[in-house]
Fold each of these.
Amino acid sequence: MAGSDLFTGTLDILILKAVSWGPRHGYAIGRWIRETTADDVIVQEGALYPALHRLERKGLLAEEWGLTDTGREAKYYTLTAVGRTHLRAESKRWTRFSAAISRAIAAASA
Amino acid sequence: MKRFLRRTDLRPDAQRDVSDELRFHLEMRTQEFIDAGMSPDDARRAAARAFGDVSSIDAELRAGRGARTRTRDRRDWFHALGQDLTFALRTLRKNLAFTVASLATLALGIGATTAVFTVVNGVLLRPLPYADPSRLEMVWLRSRTSLGSELPLSSGFYVDAIPNAASFTGLAAFRSWPYTVTSDGDAEQIPGSRVTPSFFPVIGVRPLLGRIIVDADAEPGAAHVAIIGHDLWQRRFGGSPAVLGRRIELGNESFTVIGVMPRGFAFPRGAELPRGLQFGQRTEIWTPLSFTPKDRKDFGTLSLAAIGRLKPGATAEQARRELSAGLQRFLKANAPKLDLDYQLLDLQQQAGDHVRRGLVLLMGAVTFVLFIACANVTNLLVARTSARRREFAVRAALGAGRARIARQLVTENLLLAVGGTALGVVLSGWATRAMLARVPGSLPRADDIGLDWRVAVAAGVVAAVVGGAFGLVSTLQVRWSNLAGTLHDSSARSTGGSAKTIGRRALVIAEVSLSLMLLIGASLLALSFVRLQRVQPGFVPDHTLSASIVLPIPGDFNPKRDGPGWARFFSQLTAQLAKSPNVESVGAVSTLPLTGTAEGGALEIVGRPRPEAGQAPRADYAVVEGAYFETLKIKRVAGRVFDSGDLATSPPVVVVNREFVKRYFGGASAVDHQVICHFDFSNGAARTIVGVVDDVQSASLDAPPRPQVYVPEQQMTYPGLSLVVRTQGDPTAVLPTLKREVKALDSRLALANVRTLDAVFTESLARQRFSVTVITCFAVSALALAIVGLYGVIALSVGQRRREIGVRMALGARPSDVLRLVLGEGLRITVAGTLLGLIGAFALSRLVASLLYGISATDGATYAASATAVVAVTLLATLLPARRATRVDPTSALRE
């Protein structure tokens, strides 16, 4: 499942969403996704990092090394302006898309 | 969460970036499992399991990261470069005076260097525009005795040499053959060459249109064919391809045009070959040269130039040995006493060698100017960098590393160097044109000198070296200076490192010495030029017009058949002209004085024992008609000159010059002795010496006089003479009359080389005038730059020593003491530079010696005068800052 377009798109949106409230490091992003999706999306946590780096390369995320509250070094990701626009557009598209799928499935099972 | 202390910029290491990030994740996840109640070991395993394949993800991320880091580095580098450039431009604009001074100095130095290099490249370096020119060798005869070297071949020698030319792919002969084109427009004399069919294949140039001359064209009785040059084709035939097959009238004969040579091909060119061969500046007509059975046995008429193309792998020496072996066999059998050998000369050498020394001298001189210009700008830069120490210190304190500041300086200086070079190249375009306009027509290949890639590369290299040197100087300066210390230091009090001051002084000393060397060179050349102009040429050139006329030579050169016609024509023409208004007297001569085109030959003095072969007396000969001696006011020393009584039917006579009498009669009277001339076309008759005239400089003003024999046209007919017409008033005013009279006798004739004898005189000095003008320009520029440099150093030193001077004055020093102090500093530099310059000039004197006339290259008076002049003007340059030093106000200087 990991690597399919649908999954990639989903994971990207989740990551962007995870940092939309402020800078987070990779572990925190992964944990938020696990908790909010109840472990349904991420099968392997390692898949998160290629996605993070890809988004950073595309300019949707910015990265910066910083210290955590406990004084440990960690790399923080921040949503860039481009990333925020992208997130907004993708969320809208995703909502429409999932609504359409839900309707289709509902109709089929009826 | 907000305490971001480290920025990604500080972590360029892709490996650590990735592994740190992943390790952090795994540790946090392990902690999470521990918090959920697992043992640390289990927790670690669980975290790894949840993560997936750590090592493959690590590798994947690392690869992506590495590429990204590289792009980012590149982007940062370009960004910084952009910043540097913007900042450099702003700084340069802010210091406009400095920028303008540096750019102007550099442009002057680089412009002059590029211009001279353009000429040197065009004449000496650029390969000749023929296929594989390095394998083209001119073949000459040489004699160890009086005949000299670079002698032309006779047709007999040429035909004989062909079987021995195994190392050549081919051998070709050619000779000058001027034509008068009479069809398609006004009659015009055009330099032409008769060439053997092997000529074009040997040179390796194909015609633009049509075909080359083939063997069948050179057969006896073959139809007349001609190949024309590109310029002639454009000029007279409008560049139409229909010219092929057209018939053109050359002299009295009709030729079919069979080919057009490509643009720029004008070989043989007069300036590239010995002057005696009389080739025009650019050959524009080529016709076949063939040999009759009689020609094949002719060993006496040395009139052919020969050229060969070496086979791949063959050396010139090997080819010469083969030719020579054949010649020696031939001589042994036929003329055992004749001392002759072959001489091979690389065509490029042939073309450039006689001007190499002069051009090398110019190149050396201009390099001096360039060095002085660079030294000046370097000094300006160093001074300015010192002045900016505070700026750099502030920037260093704000976090700019030394490397960054050095890079900024290098950028600024490179910008200056590139700007100066660009301006210089623009300037050189103009300077090259100006130089070529003054250059003598005898400079080989001068007609198509231009900028090419070699010049561009040279200018580029100069810019890079200059920029690099400036950059290095500033970098070293930044490295040596204690940037942080500067902030504590009041810049007014710092005296500047002593090492730096010594460096600046050394540069100025070098400048002074180089400009003195140039000044001495220029003075020597100028003095020798003045002396040359004072040389009595042996004739009076004023109020005299000259023009050359070449009568058509139908087919072969046959004075026996055509001679009487030639003689009649010239005697009629001179007689008619002599009767014209404003004309005082008229004559004609085969070789004008000072044109270096004299032809020579051997002769016998009747009644003396036959000399050894090669030891026979030789003399230049000139065929004269009309009142030649009277027109040129050549002094009669003894006997008589020719008169209207010396006709073909009367006893053969000659007139000789004083040098002839001195050399062959030991100064005793030569009149009434008889000589037998073995000239080109003399018939072997004994001729009586009837008179002696003064020596005339035939080759050039600086050449020693040569024995000369004058023969009347009526008795030794010659088809090409230069008319000389002495007039009342402006000599050019008789030109219409001259043209009318020529037309009246033969409408198909054209005048060529129409000029006054004054112009001939001036042109003969063109090369010397050129060297003097250019070197003097260089010397003056160099001296001006050196003065500016010295002024700069002293002014800066006075500025830096304000406090010291203030203290001295406060302690009672008088203004005159201060003046002496500053002048003394200038004088030390000047004297050191002058001494070095004198030594340098003396060391290099050998190089100019061959270019001088009537003055020694180590002429004491010239050295002394130049040195005095340099000391005087450089001291004037220090006077200004010295006067300023005396006005230092002690109280304000001390308070600073």
Note: The two ends of chain A are 28 Å apart (CA to CA).
Amino acid sequence: MSMLALLGRELRLSLRHGTDTVAALLFFLVAAALFPLAIGPAPETLGRLAPGIVWVCALLAALLPLERLFGADYEDGSLDQLLLCGLPAGAVAAVKAAAHWLVTGLPLLLAAAPIGLMLRLKAELLPVLLAGLLPGTLVLSLLGTAGAAIVLGARRGGVLLPLLVLPLAMPVLIFGAGAVEAAATGLSPRPHLLLLAAVLALAAPLCPLAAGAAIRAAAE
Amino acid sequence: MTAESSAAPGGFEMASRAAMFRPVDALSSLATPAAPKAPGRGLHRFANPGRFLRLAAALQPWLTAGGLILTAAGLVWGLVFAPADWQQGDAVRIMYVHVPAAWLASAGYLALAVCSVLSLVWRHPLADLAAAEIGPVGAAFTGICLATGSLWGKPMWGAWWVWDARLTSVLVLFFLYLGHIALIRAFDDPTRGYRAGAILALVGVVNLPIIKFSVDWWNTLHQPATISLTGAPSMYLGMLWPLALTALGYTLVFAALVTARTRAAVMERRIRALLMAAAAREDGAVPVAA
């Protein structure tokens, strides 16, 4: 089975379980809508907090579908089949990460613009926010895939997963929100975005490797 | 799946299973190590739990006593006799508690990562146990580092906590330790827990250089390193000596705690194996490895 065929299978599966897929997006919208109600609708406060709110909510929303990323395959035995299909375990994990990003990261990225505007983020800062979220959500998908593979078969895996992934995702949050902050104060967001790209360049080969080792250990 | 994974881990499990089938002379048979088959397998000589227990029992009093004496001597020297700082006054004495804890927090994670490599690559059974036991000790030292740093920060910076790069990266280290502790104990099959924990520990290693270089890469409130291995120390020798003593003492205490915990873990496994063998004998059933 080629990687493309595997990706097609993952996308078809998430399409058929549409509600699971939309749930993460809905969580993102609802969680972000809580903040104006909690801290008050004053535009200047809200606008200043908006990048942080969007980033934190995107981070948490991206975690939601992770438990099912390998969970269903692990339970019904498909994971053993995937490991026998001729692809290295790392490639299977990379495809899973790509599928997670296409199904969760990309919709979050698309929803971030209207959410940012509703949180009174200045319109000229939106491109910077999205430019940060693009590598950011990719890194989150990669880290999340590694985390989901590591907790495979654990008791309370769903509770453990955020505890493992969130600390590792902190640099992404720092640079992503920092880019918008820099642009808002008239500085160049370039260094922050380059650092985000560097994190992505590090995570892209290493996370699938770690996830591959973990699913192999889980299927032993 | 379960049968395969429980059969995988080699020497240690084999030894405990041998103990299950021959419970009467189990302890004596474990205590006499088999001669290593091939030279150059130095690492796996210590996979024999009997050999490890004897070595660790011989080391334990030296580690414990040395660690306690050196730490006490260094702390008394640092907290009472060493000079106060011209700028910070007596508050500088927190350094003798804080700095060694911070070193040990990072060094402990490095040890955890080394154990994880041993566990993943060579499936070394003692590395599994050691990794599981380093976690809580390392988390405790990181906690001491964060708590004393906070106490030091209040008089010096005017705040218990600032979100600069050094403090944040050490906080992430603390979370990584806690995540590792929770993960390695979250599996019904302990071997699965060791694998998952080892992978997580290796993923978290990226944080170590970030901690080390955070004070150089970013403009932090936390001061950059005063002591380096290569350059001359930019620190008064009357302060450096007690610091070196406490650092050595902390290291020995860390090693003593990990050794004691690992010995306890080995014995716990042995007791469990003996109990299961006894239960199987009472039932008259064939002992089932679980």
Note: Residues 3-219 of chain A form one domain.
